[in-house]
Design goal:
Layout lengths: L1 H23 L19 E5 L2 E4 L17 E4 L5 E4 L5 H15 L3 E5 L5 H4 L10 E4 H22 L13 E3 L2 E5 L2 E8 L6 E6 L4 E9 L11 H12 L5 E6 L7 H22 L4 H5 L13 H20 L3 H5 L1
Parallel strand pairs: 4-5, 5-6, 6-7, 11-12
Antiparallel strand pairs: 1-2, 2-3, 3-4, 8-9, 9-10, 10-11
Helix pairs in contact: 5-6, 6-8
């Protein structure tokens, strides 16, 4: 019996280490030590008048993709280019800034950061920090967790990260409309995917830039999520009239499919994980639970579900299981 308990404790410790790693890095892959080409391929898709999207790959962060997994948006204005999110590294940010200038024929007028995850915010060095803006919670989150993210990103992406340092936005975004060079931007600080997220409606083109509040054809990540708050935010975004929605990951969406799919995924995984927990299943057992057929074609569905089990099981245990001290009393 003692050996059995020791083995269980050992398995448990391994699971908790994995959970800690996946919280430190939003997307943790297997590292493969090859030489990086050190040049990102940035292919802008014109999706509206003066609106371009650079699509991230529908993958976890790997050495091969250099962390370029998030969607980036570039908007043209009379005063210059407006960039939403800066990518995973200094090198990416520098290439992105050059591309934005080439597309618009102007300098950078403003950069917005939608949340503090490294695939969206580690390219800040490529821009004048005086023009980089984000909600206060995003700035604080990047300040608090940036170094941990950086350590993990350097381990995973290696050469791609050369010279990358944490650069905090210098401007604080608040609720309201900002007009830049004739383009009206409705800035909406929200929460759910993390404790602080930013959605932006470009009223000029009718484009809703949702950041990681919306995923499409790719499983949402939950390491810093509050699922209840996220659902409330999704409903609010669903009430906004827009021509096109740009999710943080996945193709641009002419309808609201990204919002619906994200909502359905969050509901499904919460129900599955809570059921497994209430049935007394351990983490490895819960990770093998079948997923709804609706998500069979979704990129990284099993991968993200496994990570969500690690994140959410620890929260359920903290909320529902008595502590050792409580039992002794």
């Amino acid at each position: 019996m003692t050996k059995f308990n020791d083995d269980c404790d050992s398995d448990r410790r391994r699971m908790l280490k994995l959970a800690a790693a996946s919280i430190a890095v939003p997307l943790l892959p297997v590292f493969i030590a090859n030489a990086a080409p050190l040049t990102y391929t940035l292919t802008p898709q014109k999706i509206g008048d003066g609106v371009w999207m650079i699509a991230g790959v529908q993958e976890a962060i790997t050495f091969e993709n250099g962390g370029a997994i998030a969607n980036i948006t570039i908007l043209d204005s009379k005063d210059g280019a407006i960039v939403v999110d800066t990518g995973p590294s200094r090198r990416y940010g520098e290439q992105l800034a050059t591309l934005a200038r080439d597309l618009t024929g102007k300098d950078i007028a403003r950069v917005y950061i939608t949340h503090f995850h490294p695939d969206h915010a580690f390219g800040n060095q490529g821009f004048d920090v005086a023009k980089v803006a984000a909600p206060d919670g995003v700035i604080k989150g990047l300040a608090a967790m940036g170094n941990s993210f950086s350590d993990a990103m350097y381990y995973i992406a290696r050469d791609w990260m050369r010279g990358t340092e944490i650069v905090l936005p210098s401007k604080t975004v608040t609720e309201g409309v900002e007009e830049i060079g004739g383009r009206k931007l409705r800035l909406m600080p929200r929460a759910g995917h993390t404790a602080s997220d930013l959605a932006i409606l470009d009223e000029t083109s009718g484009t809703l830039i949702a950041g990681d509040l919306a995923f499409l054809d790719r499983a949402p990540t939950t390491p810093h999520a509050d699922l209840a708050v996220w659902q409330t935010t999704l409903k609010e975004l669903g009430d906004i009239q827009c021509r096109l929605l740009i999710p943080g990951h996945g193709p641009a969406d002419a309808g609201k499919r990204a919002l619906t799919q994200t909502h359905d995924w969050l509901i499904a995984i919460q129900e599955i994980i809570e059921r497994c927990f209430n049935e007394g299943q351990d983490m490895p057992e819960a990770m093998q639970a079948p997923l709804p057929k609706a998500f069979e074609g979704m990129a990284l569905a099993r991968y993200e579900f496994t990570r969500s089990v690690m994140h959410l099981y620890t929260k359920l245990e903290a909320a529902k299981l008595p502590s050792v001290g409580a039992r002794e009393k």
